[in-house]
Specification:
Blueprint lengths: L2 H26 L9 H22 L2 H16 L1 H5 L6 H20 L5 H28 L29 E7 L4 H8 L4 H9 L3 E2 L10 H10 L5 H6 L7 H8 L2 H6 L5 E6 L21 H6 L15 H22 L6 E10 L28 H24 L6 E5 L12 H8 L4 E4 L17 H10 L27
Parallel strand pairs: 1-4, 1-5, 3-4
Antiparallel strand pairs: 2-6, 5-6
Helix pairs in contact: 1-2, 1-3, 1-6, 2-3, 3-5, 3-6, 9-11
Length: about 500
């Protein structure tokens, strides 16, 4: 057989293997940078090649091998797409396997070649892949990535801190629990008083803000605004108010103004996360498959692996176990960083107490009994949120104690929720908009006898306040604004304070 024909046959199962991944990426490319695609794409290509090699061993006929390899690839990668149309379980896997066996048997007994079948498969594979591939190339070409150092982003310039004095500089920790609701929200809507945790913080010298607000209603925008010490008002001017490209926001976390201003003073930026929320191209400390909403995880959950547990499985139990491990390892890395030499600026984000709900109040494993996303923020989901909140509050106190025990100089510690509780409008749209911007804020400053939080207590001002008190800067306090989520991520329309 001519090498070009064999190569064409080989491409058929490879294209079928690539389509589910490319389709998923094309649906989410406003949130995910292109580099995230290469690793799973490589795995897809290897899967297609491996299926072809295995089928070639069975038939010694390249045309028949291409058909069987395509069937193998479809059986593996398309299982979730087909099973999603109706109920599925192990009986469905057996049916899937029976169909695959029938295809293999038909090929084995067929006397004629399979070229006509391959022509149909080749056309189908090319048509499938062409759609998402064109969308990806078009989007990347028309949406160049914005640099985090672009001066157009920030409406206010910040002068660098002075390096004069020569006294040892304190480590600066910003600990960000996701969706940790403010105390008044917990009292009113959850009938829960967070006094155990908040009193423990106060005994450790923290000032707790009773009325803190965030500028936005999503994690990435709030964290980006906080570590860059300004509103993101330049982004809609650069990208357009109807742009849905949120990739620059994560870049503004990974490469932020606070870290750049601290670098000339000798500070080292340490970026930690128990998830991938704050990373533009994947968390280097975690396997992407451990992250609930990562491209790799969502892709593999559509394969036949979704019915298996264990190390290679992606059923609910397996994905929850991986997520628990990522949380444990993330806090362990935070504890390890406390022993490293400073000065350092540490940004640590954990997805807790945000869903998925996998922890009880003492860290025991929990299985959330509902399958719909709507249930997570509903009344059935609220008790699970509270249990996970109690667990993460314990872990945060443990982290504070470790930070202080391993610091040669009293450190600055900020505990700030990226946002408030997220629910499915069960309290009414107006109330939910307010709840989303009401999160936890507590600050500990070394050597300050009467600690307080910055006023107005908007989290965009937190590091301005810290820099002013610790590094002698004179950054003005910004007016407090909050912008709820709109139809577009940069559709900033201010909401009234309530």
């Amino acid at each position: 057989m001519h090498p070009s024909k064999r190569l064409g046959l080989l491409a058929i199962p490879v294209l079928f293997a690539l389509f589910p991944l490319l389709s998923l990426f094309a649906q989410n490319q406003t949130d995910v940078e292109l580099r995230v695609l290469w690793w799973p794409a490589g795995l897809s290509i290897l899967a297609g090649l491996g299926a072809f090699a295995l089928a070639l061993l069975a038939y010694r006929d390249a045309a028949k091998a291409a058909v069987l390899a395509s069937a193998l690839v479809i059986a593996f990668f398309y299982y979730g797409a087909v099973a999603g149309w109706g109920p599925s379980g192990w009986w469905y896997v057996l049916l899937w396997a029976a169909i695959l066996f029938a295809v293999a048997l038909a090929l084995a007994v067929a006397a004629h070649d399979a070229w006509s079948v391959n022509v149909v498969l080749a056309v189908a594979a090319v048509v499938l892949v062409a759609g998402p591939a064109i969308r990806i190339v078009s989007y990347e070409a028309s949406h160049p990535l914005l640099s985090a150092t672009d001066p157009r982003i920030w409406p206010h310039r910040l002068a660098p801190p002075s390096a004069e004095g020569g006294s040892p500089l304190p480590d600066l920790y910003v600990l960000v629990p996701d969706d940790y609701a403010r105390q008044d929200v917990l009292r009113r809507y959850f009938h829960y008083r967070d006094t155990t945790f908040l009193d423990a913080l106060r005994r450790r010298g923290f000032a707790v803000a009773p009325d803190a607000r965030s500028p936005y209603s999503d994690s990435e925008s709030n964290i980006a605004a906080e570590v860059n010490m300004d509103y993101l008002s330049g982004l809609p001017k650069i990208l357009g108010p109807r742009s849905q490209d949120v990739r620059p926001v994560r870049r503004l976390i990974a490469d932020n103004r606070a870290a750049r201003l601290l670098e000339p003073l000798g500070y080292r930026y340490v970026h930690l996360d128990t998830d991938e929320v704050t990373f533009p191209t994947g968390n280097p400390d975690l396997r992407s498959a451990a992250v609930p909403d990562s491209l790799e995880n969502l892709w593999l959950q559509k394969t036949v692996l979704r019915v298996f547990g264990g190390p290679i499985g992606f059923n609910r139990s397996a994905t929850d176990r991986r997520f628990r491990e990522s949380v444990h390892s993330g806090f362990a890395r935070l504890h390890g960083v406390t022993k490293e030499a400073g000065p350092k600026f540490v940004l640590f984000h954990t997805l807790l107490p945000h869903d998925p709900y996998v922890f009880g109040p003492r860290g025991r494993s929990v299985d959330f009994p509902y399958t719909s996303d709507a249930a997570l923020g509903s009344k059935p989901g609220m008790p699970y949120f509270l249990r996970q909140l109690r667990y993460v509050s314990h872990e945060l106190l443990h982290a504070v104690d470790a930070i202080r025990a391993n610091s040669t100089r009293p450190p600055v510690i900020v505990i700030v929720a990226d946002e408030g509780f997220q629910a499915e409008d069960q309290f009414g749209e107006r109330a939910m908009r307010q709840i989303r911007v009401k999160g936890l804020l507590a600050i500990s400053l070394p050597g300050v006898s009467s600690p307080r939080v910055p006023g107005p207590p908007n989290t965009v001002n937190v590091l301005r306040y810290v820099f002013n008190r610790v590094l002698g800067t004179h950054y003005p306090t910004l007016p407090s604004h909050s912008y709820p989520e709109g139809d577009y991520p940069y559709q900033f329309e201010e909401m009234p304070v309530r």
